[in-house]
Amino acid sequence: MVYTVLKWYVIDGNRVVYECLNRADNPEPAAPPIDFPSFQIVDYAGGGKWSREEDIWVMGR
Q1: What is the domain extent for residue 10?
Q2: How many domains does the chain have?
Q3: pLDDT surpassing 70 at residue 37
Q4: Residue 29: C-alpha distances to residues 7, 21, 26, 33 (Å)
């Protein structure tokens, strides 16, 4: 399962930009969770709907 922790966000008009930490359960017993940050850019279209989403994943090396 993947859990998401919001780190920060900025709202500029109809656009929301935010960073979150994605945390996944480690398949190895007793091992720590696997964490990786990502940035999202979403544009609000109105009427409770989003018109665009861009995901930028920052994976470990």
Answers
A1: 2-57
A2: 1
A3: yes
A4: 27, 22, 7, 10
